[in-house]
Amino acid sequence: RRKLVTLRQRIRNVFAGKPSATPPVSIRLDLWHRAARAEGALPPEVRGLAPEEVEDFLGFARAARFRATPRLCLAKGAIVSETIGRETRTEYRLGSRTLTRVAVQTEANERAGIQPHVTQYPVQTREDCLALAEALRDARLEVPAGFEALDTATGDRGLPMYILGPCPAHHVMLSFAGYENFYQLRADWPDEVDALIEALDHLMRRDLWPAALASPAELIMHGCHFSTAMTPPRVFERCFLPYFAEFNSRMHAAGKKVLWHSDAD
After folding, report:
1. How far apart are CA 169 and CA 177, in angstroms?
2. Which of 50, 85, 126, 147 is the most buried (most CB within 10 A)?
3. 3-state DSSP call for residue 50?
4. Which helix (H) or strand (E) holds 126?
C-alpha cells in the first residue's frame, strides 16, 4: 500500500531537495480573503469560511504564519501610542527628549489589510539618533509567545513559519527614519546612525536570536522587503549581509531553515 505523505512532510521534502510528485502549494490568502470579504466578493464556494478553511477547501498547505516580531520595551522612558480617528501617534518619551511617529490609515488600506502610511518618523536629527541609541542600550525586546499553539493547530496541514521582521539596519530604515530620510541622515551623521543600528543589533542578538533558537519552529523568516531599488547592493552588503550571515549560520547549526522576503527582486 502506498504511504500517505502529509503536507507538512511534503514541505520538508522540498526544503531537503527531494522530488515531490505533488508539490505542496502554500499561498498567503489572508490579505485577499480580508479584502474580498469586505467588498462582498468572496466566491460562493468559500463564503463564510475562515482563511484556513479556504486553504483546506482548495487543497493548499496552511500558510501558518506566526509573527514573532518583538516589542521594544524601554527601561528608561516609555513608548505611548494613541489613535484618534484614522491617525495613530506614537511617542518615544526619552527623558528630556520626545520622538514622535505619526501614521494615518485609509479606508481602502484598512479593508485590504495594508499598514497605515507613516507621515512622520521619530528619528529626524543627529540628536534624535543619539537619544534613541542611548535608550536602546538599557532596553529589551519582548518576543511574543504562542507559536507552539499554532504549530499544534496546524498539525500535518502545513509547516508553520516563525516571522521575526527586519534586521537592525532595515528596522531603522522602515520604522525609525524612513527610507526617504535614511540615506540623507547617514550621509550627514554616519557615526550616529551606525550607533543606532549597533544598539538595535545588540538587542536582537541578545533577545531575539535565543528566542528563535529555543522555538520548535523549523522555518524562520528574518528579513523583509529586500529590493535593490530601495536598498542598493553596497548598502545591503555593508549593513545587512554581515548580520544575516551570522544569524543564518547559527540557525542552520540548530537545524533550522531561514527564509526572507525579496519583493520579487
Report:
1. 10
2. 147
3. coil
4. helix 126-136
Calculate the average pLDDT of the chain. Answer: 92
**DSSP β-bridge partners for residue 260:** none
- Three-state SS at 200: helix
Q: In this structure, how many other beta carbons lie within 10 angstroms of the beta carbon of residue 167?
A: 25
pTM: 0.90
Closest CA to 108 of 190, 209, 38, 213: 38
Secondary structure class of 215 (helix, strand, coil): coil
Burial of 152 (0-12, 13-18, 19+ CB in 10 A): exposed
Q: How far apart are CA 207 and CA 148, in angstroms?
A: 19
- Give Cα 42 to chain centroid, integer Å: 28
DSSP 8-state class, residue 77: S
Tell me the pLDDT tens digit for each residue of 95-149: 889 999 999 998 888 877 788 999 999 999 999 999 999 999 999 999 999 999 9
* Residues in contact with 60: Cβ distance below 8 Å, sequence separation at least 6, in sequence order: 25, 26, 27, 29
Torsion, Cα of 144, 108, 81, 74 (10° steps): 40
> What is the C-alpha to C-alpha distance for residues 172 and 81, in angstroms, rounded to an integer?
19
Task: Give pLDDT tens digits for 2-57.
Answer: 457 899 999 999 989 998 788 888 888 988 898 898 889 999 999 999 999 999 99
